[in-house]
Amino acid sequence: MKKKIVIIVILLAIALVLLFIPKSTYQKLFNKGDVDENNELSYSLLVYLEDDLNRVVGVNVKVNELEEDEVRQKWNLLTVNSNMLPANFQSSIPSNCELVDYKEEDNKLVLYTNAAIKDANGRKALESIAWTFINDDIKEVCIFVNDEQINCFKDYSFKKINKNQGINLEYETMYLYESTATTLIYQQDEYILPVTYFHLESDICDYIVMKTLDNLDFNTEVYDYQIEDSVLTLDFVDASMLSLNQITTLVESIGFNLNVDCLNINNNENIFYQRVFNEVEE
User: Fold this and answer.
1) pLDDT exceeds 80 at position 4
2) Which residue of 22, 111, 128, 166 has the fewest C-beta atoms within 10 A of its own C-beta?
3) What is the DSSP string of the chain?
């Protein structure tokens, strides 16, 4: 009986501590954040913006805190709080475009906004919205103004907002009906640059490696690969030649384009890096 009383007292004490702990301290304990140069915990949200080269890129924008309503916080960064965006980046959505309400259903994010969304910057806005809000649970975004579903930004018409429509399009062939679309997600130090290439290469894995490691001479055997039981193994002669950005680009691009459960990067038969995309229950 005494043990039960002690346990209850301990649990009540923990509950009281959590109840009165400052929000900022709670975030430092339980939220994911980065430590800045002053050794202070900082927070950021990934949103997709236009850069000064007219590309749509992913930028981690610093925020004071991570709000529970991530959808609305991201939308506000693209609109009313666009003054928080870093220099040389701008939103494709008008700052007066209000998010009235939203809901998630059937893997869709349905956004209800005011009419200012119709003045969004064409395809750039479509790409920005798709890559900002689509994730493992959300596969498509729909936008409504009152009861009207929006399918046009300025003079750019579309049927759906999803990642399948590509981003920062690059054409390596004139034969588009025979081409394959492959999206590489380049990891840079300051931002993420996704690019959708239209090409005629039949081996998607080779194509991703070739585009990622464009400084290598592919006339020599620098790597091999095999897919077995949904596990892709890239076996490099010397995996140490890969930079961290190149490894991340390979991982994200393979996860986006290829239906595999796991990626192994090997270095002389020893696993140099591993990433599991889908947990397989045995």
Assistant:
1) no
2) 22
3) -HHHHHHHHHHHHHHHHHHHS-HHHHHHHHS--EE-TTS-EEEEEEEEEEETTS-EEEEEEEESS--S-HHHHHHHHHTTTGGGSPTTEE-SS-TT--EEEEEEETTEEEEEE-GGGGGS-HHHHHHHHHHHH--SS--EEEEEETTEEP-EETTEE-S-BSGGG-SS-EES-S-GGG-EEEEEEEE-SS-EEEEEEEE--S-HHHHHHHHHTTTS-TTS--EEEEEETTEEEEEES-GGG--HHHHHHHHHHHHHHS--SEEEEEETTEEEEEEESSPPP-
pLDDT digits (tens, 9 = 90+) for 133-162: 999 999 999 999 999 999 999 999 999 999
Give the integer Cα–Cα distance in Å for 175 and 11.
67
Residue 70: C-alpha distances to residues 45, 67, 179, 190 (Å):
9, 6, 37, 22
> pLDDT digit string (tens) for 233-278?
999 888 888 899 999 999 999 999 999 999 999 877 788 899 999 8
Q: What tokens does 131 get?
A: 């890559």
Read off the pTM.
0.83
